[in-house]
Design a protein that fits this description.
Elements: H1 2-32, E1 45-49, H2 58-69, E2 75-79, E3 90-91, H3 98-101, H4 103-112, E4 117-120, H5 124-134, E5 140-144, E6 156-162, E7 190-194, H6 202-212, E8 219-227, E9 231-232, E10 252-257, H7 263-268, E11 275-280, H8 289-300, E12 307-312, H9 313-320, H10 327-330, E13 333-336, E14 338-342, H11 351-360
Parallel strand pairs: 1-5, 1-6, 2-4, 2-5, 6-7, 7-8, 10-11, 10-12, 12-13
Antiparallel strand pairs: 3-4, 8-14, 9-13
Helix pairs in contact: 2-4, 4-9
């Protein structure tokens, strides 16, 4: 029955997928032929993005890049500020909230504080110009989720791809999750396969490289997530840390998630004996009074001497500024920190060194915009 349903769905959606592909192909060709103009800037721009809808780990990888380069460059991160309730160019500050700049920019700002600048703007070109005008000493601008924003020509494009759902196994919207043809990968200077399993081997990496069929100028890297100890969302209300190892089979944890791909977050807790219940919400979800009431009811009905709520870093940013979140839940709500770990033994060397070299590289007048041959 499911196979029949899948075949019918494929038959219905395929024409729409072709139409969508024709539109994105035409748009990209207009940029390639110079009909639609790209703008370059004197300050190096690193674009971090993907060609799939959500869930590849853009924000953690932007944070990783910032953490590795902040001691070497004066950095600004520019984002659109998805689902904020404001418009225009805004620089993050200590009074910023998710409604003002969006949850992901706020997460980055809270993590790095005064070490970098964080700003949001619908127009990446306008945002870059305003940043350069405001901060004369900037050495590097990182664009978060801007791979399809081709009006800016970055110095380096870093494309992220979920290891479990590579582009060569996906389809264009609405049949699949691709925002454009899989060959959009040709615009990337560096490709990172994200969320790799701990068991990945050099052979697995070579198989991926063969499937991707990269150009000679492109470098391929692999990363995975490392999880830290639980941290309180409401630091002034909650004990500073909570050790999950102290919880037994009779205890309960409510996993609260509003991210594009919660699979990895949920999977992390399967190794523990306690009872797990998951409350799923859409990506960037703003928790309403009704949502919070349902969360409260679910939590109160869970069994166990010890009960806590665990959420993601991004959800924690929104919960911290949620006016409906009750005091009772603040006392037992934690988030699970994640950090990117670049996997060694890549054929193309070490990611950070490769990125630094690309940022520092002087323009080559004989370099013809990514002329190259396939690696295979």
């Amino acid at each position: 029955m499911n196979k029949t349903k899948d075949r019918i769905l494929t038959y219905v959606l395929t024409p729409f997928s072709w139409l969508y592909g024709a539109v994105t192909w035409t748009r990209n060709k207009l940029f390639d032929y110079g009909v639609l103009k790209q703008e370059e800037f004197d300050v190096p721009v690193v674009c971090v993005g993907n060609i799939t809808v959500g869930g590849t780990g853009k924000t953690p990888h932007v944070e990783y890049i910032v953490s590795q380069l902040a001691g070497r460059y004066r950095i600004a991160v520019l984002s659109r500020g998805y689902k904020r309730r404001t418009r225009g160019f805004i620089i993050a500050n200590s009074k910023s909230t998710p409604d003002i700049i969006g949850d992901e920019p706020l997460q980055i700002y809270q993590k790095f504080g005064s070490r970098i600048k964080v700003a949001v703007c619908e127009s990446r070109r306008e945002g870059i110009k305003r940043l350069i005008e405001t901060y004369k000493d900037l050495d590097l601008i990182i664009l978060d989720d801007a791979f399809q924003h081709r009006y800016v020509k970055p110095k380096i494009s870093v494309m992220l791809m979920d290891y479990q759902r590579p582009v060569y196994k996906d389809h264009l919207l609405p049949l699949g999750r691709l925002r454009e043809s899989a060959r959009g990968i040709d615009r990337a200077d560096m490709v990172v396969m994200t969320k790799c399993p701990d068991t990945i081997t050099p052979l697995d990496m070579r198989i991926v490289r063969k499937h991707l069929d990269l150009m000679s100028y492109q470098k391929l890297f692999f990363s995975r997530y490392d999880y830290g100890g639980l941290m309180p969302v409401f630091a002034e209300e909650t004990p500073p840390r909570f050790n999950l190892d102290f919880m037994g089979a009779g205890d309960s944890v409510l996993l609260l998630t509003g991210v594009a791909n919660p699979r990895y977050f949920v999977r992390y807790f399967k190794k523990y004996a306690f009872t797990r219940k998951v409350a799923y919400f859409p990506d960037h979800h703003n928790f309403s009074r009704h949502d919070i009431a349902n969360i409260m009811n679910t939590f109160n009905n869970m069994k166990g001497e010890h009960k806590i709520i665990v959420t993601t870093e991004k959800d924690a940013v929104r919960l911290l500024h949620n006016p409906y979140y009750p005091q009772e839940l603040k006392l037992c709500t934690y988030y699970l920190p994640i950090a990117v770990n670049m996997i060694a033994n890549n054929e193309d060397g070490e990611f950070v060194n490769a990125l630094r070299e690309a940022v520092d590289r002087k323009p080559n007048p004989w370099d013809n915009d990514h002329d190259g041959i396939r690696q295979s």
